[in-house]
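ARCHIVE CARD
CATEGORY: sequence design from structure
SOURCE FIELD: tokenized fold
FIELD CONTENT:
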């Protein structure tokens, strides 16, 4: 019995995700598809457009067998931590044969070469990286420059434009991080590449079969109801039509209040001294979440990077938290969000895995150790903020962590 794992956000679920699941099943011969999905906040530091229960249901209705939640401390982290924590989770299930992911290049050999350099960190590359960091570059920029210099020096046959395109693509960057994590953990899981179809990650065009999640979110954020029937599976569209979307702007008031309470933000994950000072100096001009991100942008900080940092401030995720979690190998539990009752993979996971599977949150929370409780407490806080903002906007309540029901199809 072959089982494939997919790390996803489904923000929201669309035709491209359906294509990914169907193609994985067809090309790998996998009988089971296990999803590790972000919860109510995602990797770009954004709130999920729909809550995690609804997004899990769309995955199950479109071919997934089991959906687990990636805790918010990892789902909002850098690409490296996002990927490493996810691969660590799949390794511990002892049930996954393939890790399947999309990429925006057909040059998968170059992706693998890049991942090996980052995993092995040869001296020449490492020295260049340290030199760039000392000059004041952010880590992503320093790493990109050092990596390019090293790889072009070792392999002049590499086309510079191809290399630049690969390391500037969000999906390719994640693919490299997945590969690196597999290499560094000597994982038995095999990587399986799926070429991304249609729109690019940040493409806002929705007039095609495979529109991007970004394009769909942008269309939904406007004050009208777009026709998404050509880009979202019919069963998912039916669920979305009864749901209310959440956007970054809805968190403006609560973030503004939090920023007024402190003057030093360096304790929060990914926030540098420079960015902390910039936040403190500019918060007097704060008018809203999205505008403030744009205000904070500089040559060293991208929109996504700043969004991620502000998300960590919003949710209270600190550097000390993340160091503690990394030192203890990320995850010792799996929070079950949804599953198909006719699939046998959940039973196999229960028999084979090295982690605790959470089916009833309150029962596990009452007996878990301090490490697990710390991760769960951060999740509880994040979901409480999401629920509060949703309730304020729509005068309706979402389920809490303690009364949320597992989706069973």
């Amino acid at each position: 019995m072959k089982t494939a794992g997919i790390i996803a956000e489904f923000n929201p679920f669309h035709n491209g995700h359906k294509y990914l699941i169907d193609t994985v099943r067809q090309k790998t011969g996998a009988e089971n598809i296990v999803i590790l999905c972000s919860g109510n906040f995602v990797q770009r530091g954004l709130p999920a457009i729909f809550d995690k229960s609804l997004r899990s249901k769309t995955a199950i209705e479109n071919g997934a067998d089991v959906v687990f939640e990636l805790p918010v401390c990892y789902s909002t982290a850098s690409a490296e931590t996002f990927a490493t924590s996810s691969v660590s989770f799949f390794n511990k299930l002892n049930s996954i044969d393939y890790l399947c992911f999309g990429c925006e290049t057909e040059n998968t050999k170059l992706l693998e070469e890049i991942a090996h350099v980052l995993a092995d960190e040869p001296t020449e590359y490492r020295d260049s990286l340290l030199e760039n960091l000392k000059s004041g570059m952010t880590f992503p920029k320093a790493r990109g420059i050092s990596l390019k210099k090293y790889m072009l020096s070792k392999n002049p046959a590499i086309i510079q434009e191809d290399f630049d395109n690969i390391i500037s693509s969000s999906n390719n960057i994640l693919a490299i991080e997945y590969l690196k994590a597999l290499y560094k953990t000597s994982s038995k899981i095999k990587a399986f590449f799926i070429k991304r179809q249609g729109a690019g990650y940040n493409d806002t065009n929705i007039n095609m079969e495979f529109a991007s999640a970004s394009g769909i979110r942008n269309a939904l954020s406007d004050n009208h109801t777009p026709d998404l029937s050509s880009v979202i599976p019919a069963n998912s569209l039916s669920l979305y039509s009864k749901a209310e979307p959440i956007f970054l702007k809805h968190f403006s008031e609560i973030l503004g209040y939090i920023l007024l309470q402190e003057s030093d933000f360096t304790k929060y994950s990914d926030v540098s001294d420079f960015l902390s000072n910039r936040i403190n100096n500019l918060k007097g001009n704060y008018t809203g979440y999205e505008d403030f991100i744009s205000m904070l942008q500089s040559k060293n900080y991208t929109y996504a990077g700043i969004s991620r940092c502000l998300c960590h401030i919003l949710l209270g995720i600190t550097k000390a938290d993340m160091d503690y979690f990394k030192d203890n190998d990320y995850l010792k539990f799996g929070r079950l969000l949804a599953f198909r009752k006719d699939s046998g993979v959940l039973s196999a996971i229960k028999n084979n895995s090295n982690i605790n599977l959470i089916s009833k949150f309150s029962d596990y929370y009452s007996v878990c150790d301090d490490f697990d409780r710390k991760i769960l407490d951060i999740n509880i806080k994040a979901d409480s903020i999401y629920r509060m903002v949703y309730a304020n906007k729509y005068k309706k309540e979402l389920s809490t962590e303690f009364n949320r029901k597992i989706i069973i199809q």
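CARD ANNOTATION: Strands lie at 3-8, 32-38, 66-70, 98-103, 190-195, 333-339, 356-358, 407-408. The chain has a mean pLDDT of 93.
SHELF: design records, drawer C
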